[in-house]
Amino acid sequence: MHKQIFVNIAINDMQKSQDFFKKLGFTFNPDFTNEQGACMVISDDIYAMLLTRDFFQGFTGKPLVDAKEATEVLICLSCESRAEVD
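-> structure tokens emitted (86 positions)
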């Protein structure tokens, strides 16, 4: 059985976040997407779970950081060229 990766990211606004990533060409799995979380498909085995801050907080006893003040996660996605990034 192959492994899957799920990166969980706390977000402030579900609709704005989905709209942003859709503009970059990502899709969302509707079976695992609702008003609290959205499963963004990165590849067949890699997903980003966009979770509202309140929902995300339910998975940890630690405080969430303010992304304007600190770094919570770094995510790197490879691309074939600079043109693909643009």
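The longest strand covers residues 5-11.
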